[in-house]
Amino acid sequence: MTDPLLRIAAALERLSPPITDADPAHGHWFVWTAAGLAAVPPPRSAPLALYAGVDTQRANLLENARRHAAGLPAHDVLLWGARGMGKSSLVRAVHASLAADNEHIALVQVAQPDLETLPRLFTRLAATDRRFTIFLDDLSLDGDDGKVHALRSLLDGGVMARPEHIRLAVTSNRRNLVPRSMAENDAHPDANAVNMRDVTDDRLALADRFGLRLGFHNCDQPTYLAICRNYAGALGLPFDPHAALAWATGRGARSGRVAWQFSVETAGAAGRQINL
Predict the structure, then answer these.
(1) What is the DSSP string of 153-195?
(2) Which pLDDT value is given to residue 108?
(3) 223 CB neighbour count, 10 Å cutoff
(4) Residue 14: what pLDDT?
(5) CATH fold label, 20-213
(6) Rounded to an integer, what distance in angstroms lies between the CA atom of residue 93 and that of residue 54?
(7) From residue 53, how far is each of 2, 221, 227 by CA, in Å?
(8) Using CB atoms within 10 A of its CB, is residue 44 exposed (0-12), middle (13-18) or buried (19+)?
(9) Roughly what angle, to the nearest 10 degrees, separates helices 55-69 and 87-100?
């Protein structure tokens, strides 16, 4: 091979994604992509006690995860609802709590573009003697009935259904993971079907596969202030409710995410580090 070809081959090798092959038997945090399984450092997660306004959701998710970690019957979980209300962070926080208790369970995050590789991931984990939670974050299946049917089959009913030591935790802004409004439905290729009820039932059947569905709703003012107060106490910061409300007004929203952003601003202005 000539020198120019060698240089081109070396450049292509540098650009190609590395082949990862982490050992799923060790560690608590993983990411799965088409390239393979990679172990990752623990992400930032707030202590469970800091979550306000989602007490029932927190308790149910934690109890289900503890059962799964203990090898008891447990559900696949769908966390749906308002943005910024802690769906994703609560999944991480619950898993961090189990990891701190040395529970033999691992969280494996899979991005939406890699959904089609889930059967390969299940095969990869099938022989590992521990419990796994597959985390699909911010999932939305806009008009993609192929992915809807594939995921439905993997959850329940297909010959490639997920193994018994694996459960899914899925977050979405949509209650049923599919378009809800009439305008969205009109844009769907089945909008002119003779019996739209059959089409709707077929598409909503995916959400029915989740035994535990937890709704997260818009944040009222008292709940928002309680979240800000919790963060301030945990970070050792002064709490000014008027400043917290002004911050939310400037962003046109009240949520757990906005409360955290206000806390970051307060800590930065005070020259304080955040150690959560």
Answers:
(1) HHHTTSTTPPPTTEEEEEEESSTTSS--SHHHHHTSTTTT-S-
(2) 97
(3) 19
(4) 55
(5) Rossmann fold (3.40.50)
(6) 13
(7) 66, 11, 8
(8) exposed
(9) 40
Per-residue model confidence (pLDDT) at position 144: 55
Q: Characterize the bridge pairing of strands 29-33 and 36-39.
A: antiparallel
What is residue 198's predicted lDDT score, i.e. its pLDDT? 46
What local confidence, expressed as pLDDT, does residue 141 receive?
72
- Output the pLDDT for position 160: 66
SS3 state at 211 = coil
Q: Which of the residues in the chain have pLDDT under 50?
A: 181-189, 193-196, 198
Q: What pLDDT is stored for residue 176 in this prediction?
A: 72
Which residue, 222, 94, 233, is CA-closest to 167?
94
As a whole number of angstroms, the distance between CA 67 and CA 183 comes to 41
Six-digit token string for 85: 């209300």
Using a 10 angstrom Cβ sphere, with 0-12 exposed, 13-18 middle and 19 or more buried, the burial of residue 82 is middle
Token code pair at residue 248: 């939310």
Task: Return the pLDDT at 15.
Answer: 55
Query: Residue 107 forms beta bridges with which residues?
Result: 29, 133
